[in-house]
Design a protein that fits this description.
The chain is built from 27 helices and 14 strands. The protein is of the alpha+beta class and 750 residues long. It has five domains: 152 residues, no CATH class; 57 residues, no CATH class; 173 residues, no CATH class; 111 residues, no CATH class; 121 residues, no CATH class. Helix 7 runs antiparallel to helix 8 and helix 13 packs antiparallel against helix 14. The protein is elongated, with a radius of gyration of 40 Å. The protein starts with a helix and ends in a 31-residue tail after the last helix.
Length: 750
């Protein structure tokens, strides 16, 4: 103002005091004086009440000896929309005060709420003479009496003595369990910085206060202790439950009692504590052990309400252990429980897309270098691998419960196995009720890496879900098949992952062209459930795109072979943009992509011997007259039967021998390949196959040298880079000599 006067009046100079007095007079002329403002305050509050019906105003006046005159001390007000809106906000209140600067000093007290989207929500205000025990008690009493009577509220504030006294006042309605008082970490961090003059300690305190895991909290507290022992002692004197998120029981921004009430409403039991005093319900996470303890057995004669509660508990256990399993393996998020309130509405949700999106996100996190664990529905990934890839797939040795023959059943090949009930079981049930055996893997991860690096076309089943397979599945498994090729986002709360069928069109029996580019949103992948955002609003674009899923179905042409122009172009593009081998170039490859067990070698040599004997027997029988060939064939088959039995006994698999069931069809025929005798070249007595005698049956098995040679080769493979003996090391053209010479090896091409 001094400079403005100097410029406007040709350099006329005024003092700072004169300018300040002029400003005060101008303000008084426009807005009125300080005394006049206080005189207008009752009229202003009355106008608020008339324009916002239901608005609350409370006065506190001082006594005055002058009749008709009142001396202002305090005023409290809360708008009606704020009072009504707080019923739908989180059970969290933050309170603080700020000084008023003017002729008459005072303090403005504010109470703020937090809505469902973690945005500030104005709740109540007051102008008081200053921050003291009486003013804070009066302010909190007005909130409890005129604004809200909700129980279990969390009140966050600084450590002002007046606030502490108001929260601990008996009968005020703010003592526990009616409310829980927590300290503002921002104020506490400022106090730490002021006391110890260290920004590093201040930042470490902030990380400790926001740490949700015990090991992280202990780590930051110990770091503070390493830098300054007094700082750690100072923090330890303040109860951890007052400022640490890990220790406060989840009250900051989350109504713990709300989750308890929800569990009690839908499951009929309120979670408590285990034998060690630890709560079964922490935040929004419920222990699966609590569910198994209370809902493992359905009571006899249960009514409909009890059945519904046990059903919800079973589905919740299924979600926590399989569908949406986390890394702990013994907890389930209660975010899914409200969706099971109404069974009719629950059936309209796309649980399959949510499960698949959750699996995709867990795979993304599991591929990070520092990741040591993985969550998600890994059983789905395992079943997908078994259906598509022969590497690592177990084979069914025998059924556990042989099925009962149905005389009315159609006579057709059961492509899903004898244990699959047509029209009842989903596809994964073909792997149930059977005994599985896994291939021998001596090297673990290196074996699988090397096996995939040497994978062939016939080791991949590109289209396992054929029409014949789908016809045998129940209707629920075949519903919505028209959107299986939809290029749409998969949404599960914070998770948004895209379903990209245009990259696996061969799975649907279509030619695979070069797919569209994918823009991986890194920021979207970094989002997690911390903060409990309103995901329906934050993911509104993806939700809209999901609603158009039927219009986003990928089209294609029927598969015509790997040599088609589309496949040729795709493979040229694929080899250009991807890694062709999984094993790192710097890592030494395993001696063989399959290191067989001793039993595998024995079976390999036994089959080689069986091949030689069958070839000779076939040629001999073709040159014998019928009256001699039949007894010879019977004796030969008896020798082969004994040979197979002894071989299986040697490898410990004799239990696999089962008696054949008698055929129920009288019209069944045995199809054999015709045997054409070789052209006559003179006497064939020297080349004729001599039938084995009982004393020769043991000679047909592999010599004992095989086991010793295998162990010697295996020891050598562990110390050198040579190629070990394996099933792939026995070429077909040299199988006839493998029983007498087990040293033959096939070198891998470099």
């Amino acid at each position: 103002m001094v400079q403005l006067v100097k410029e406007k009046f040709d350099g006329f100079q005024i003092t700072y005091k004169r300018a300040w007095l002029a400003k005060q007079k101008a303000i008084k002329l426009i807005y009125g004086g300080w005394e006049g403002s206080y005189e207008q305050l009752p009229k202003y509050m009355q106008a608020l009440k008339e324009s916002n019906p239901g608005t609350v105003v409370e006065w506190r006046l001082l006594e005055c000896t002058v009749p008709g005159t009142h001396v202002f001390q305090r005023v409290f007000w809360a708008f009606k929309p704020c009072i009504d809106g707080f019923r739908h906000c989180r059970p969290l209140i933050t309170i603080d005060g700020t000084h008023l600067y003017g002729k008459y000093k005072g303090t403005l007290l504010i109470a703020m709420g937090t809505d469902a989207n973690f945005q500030l929500f104005p709740l109540a205000f007051a102008v008081v003479e200053g921050e003291n025990n009486d003013s804070w008690s009066w302010f909190m009493a007005c909130i409890r009496a005129r604004v809200t009577d909700r129980k279990g509220l969390c009140v966050i504030s600084d450590r002002h003595a007046g606030i502490l006294a108001a929260m601990e006042e008996v009968g005020s309605g703010w003592e526990e369990p009616n409310a829980y008082h927590k300290y503002c970490t921002r104020h506490l961090a400022s106090n730490v910085n002021s006391k110890f003059k260290s920004v590093v300690i201040k930042n470490l305190f902030g990380k400790a206060a926001t740490a949700r895991q015990k090991k992280k909290f202990d780590y930051y507290i110990n770091k503070i202790g390493d830098l300054n022992v007094e700082a750690r002692r100072y923090l330890m004197e303040i109860p951890y439950s007052k400022w640490s998120i890990h220790h406060d029981g989840g009250f900051r921004g989350l109504d713990v009692s709300r989750w308890h009430d929800l569990v009690e409403e839908l499951l009929g039991v309120r979670p408590g504590h285990d034998d060690n005093g630890k709560p079964f319900l922490e935040g929004s996470t419920l222990k699966l052990t609590w569910l198994r303890r209370h809902f493992s057995q359905m009571p006899e004669g249960a009514d409909d309400l009890t059945v519904q509660r046990h059903s919800r508990a079973y589905i919740l256990t299924l979600m926590g252990s399989i569908l949406f399993a986390d890394k702990s393996g013994d907890a389930v998020s209660l975010y899914y429980l409200p969706f099971l309130r109404d069974w009719g509405t629950a059936s309209t949700y796309s649980w399959g897309s949510a499960t698949l999106g959750f699996l995709y996100r867990q795979l993304c996190r599991g591929c990070q270098r520092d990741s040591r664990q993985i969550g998600g529905p890994l059983i789905l990934l395992q079943l997908w691998s078994w259906e598509h890839i022969t590497i690592g797939r177990p084979y069914i040795r025998r059924p556990r419960d042989p099925p009962q023959e149905d005389p009315e059943a159609e006579d057709e090949d059961d492509i899903l196995g004898t244990q699959h009930q047509r029209g009842v079981d989903p596809l994964a049930c073909r792997w149930l009720r059977v005994h599985l055996s896994c291939a021998h893997t001596a090297s673990g991860l290196p074996y699988y890496r090397d096996a995939f690096d040497h994978q062939h076309e016939d080791q991949m089943i590109w289209q396992p879900y054929t029409e014949a397979v789908m016809d045998r599945l129940p209707e629920i498994c075949r519903s919505d098949m028209h959107i299986w090729r939809s290029r749409a986002p998969l949404i599960c709360f914070d998770v948004v992952e895209f379903h990209l069928p245009d990259r696996v069109l061969r799975q649907f029996g279509l030619d695979q062209p070069i797919p569209q580019d994918v823009d991986t949103d890194v920021a979207l992948h970094r989002k997690d459930r911390r903060g409990q955002r309103n995901w329906e609003i934050r993911h509104s674009d993806h939700v809209h795109e999901w609603s158009r899923r039927e219009a986003l179905v990928v089209q294609g042409y029927p598969f015509t072979g790997t040599s088609s122009p589309a496949m040729t172009e795709y493979m040229a593009w694929y080899r250009r943009i991807t890694r062709l081998v999984i094993t790192p170039p710097s890592q030494e490859r395993p001696p063989s992509h399959y290191q067989p067990a001793t039993s595998d070698l024995l079976l390999a040599h036994a089959f080689a011997d069986l091949h030689v004997q069958l070839s000779g027997a076939t040629e001999t029988i073709s040159h014998l007259p019928p009256e001699t060939a039949i007894p010879f064939a019977i004796q030969t088959m008896q020798g082969f039967t004994s040979f197979c039995g002894q071989t299986l006994s040697r490898v410990g698999q004799s239990h696999l021998i089962q008696q054949p069931r008698p055929s129920t069809s009288s019209s069944s025929t045995v199809h054999t390949m015709p045997i054409r005798p070789p052209p006559h070249r003179g006497g064939h007595s020297a080349r004729a196959f001599r039938p084995p005698t009982p004393s020769q049956h043991t000679i047909m098995t592999s010599p004992p040298l095989v086991h010793r040679q295998y162990q010697r080769n295996r020891r050598r493979s562990n110390t050198t880079s040579g190629v070990g003996v394996g099933l792939d090391d026995i070429p077909e053209e040299t199988a006839a000599s493998s029983s007498s010479s087990p040293h033959g090896k096939k070198q891998r091409p470099s």
